[in-house]
């Protein structure tokens, strides 16, 4: 039996594109939700769109869109990754809006 890799070291040197390609969950998916370097913009993975954090009106607009998309999914739909992405983006936007 071989020794397990040092996962922390592995992840620290892995570029995101390499990580995405090697992940069985991310390889065929869009990019996840992420802030830019100075946290002034947010890329919403569920909508594949960038949003300026200080623009409250657009944040509310995208929250509304995400809520509608989330509600339109049937409870029997088994695309759980998509549902979880919508749900997490929805909760994040609610938190950002509440802090404004």
UniProtKB/TrEMBL annotation:
This is Uncharacterized protein. The lineage of its organism: Bacteria, Pseudomonadati, Thermodesulfobacteriota, Desulfobulbia, Desulfobulbales. It comes from Desulfoprunum benzoelyticum. It comes from the Bacteria.
């Amino acid at each position: 039996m071989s020794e397990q890799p040092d996962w922390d070291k592995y992840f620290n040197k892995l570029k995101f594109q390499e990580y995405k390609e090697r992940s069985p969950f991310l390889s065929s998916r869009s990019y996840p939700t992420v802030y830019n370097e100075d946290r002034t913009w947010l890329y919403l993975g569920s909508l594949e769109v960038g949003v300026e954090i200080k623009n409250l009106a657009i944040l509310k607009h995208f929250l509304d869109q995400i809520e509608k998309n989330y509600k339109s999914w049937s409870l029997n739909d088994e695309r759980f990754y998509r549902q979880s992405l919508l749900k997490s983006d929805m909760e994040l936007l609610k938190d950002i809006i509440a802090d404004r």
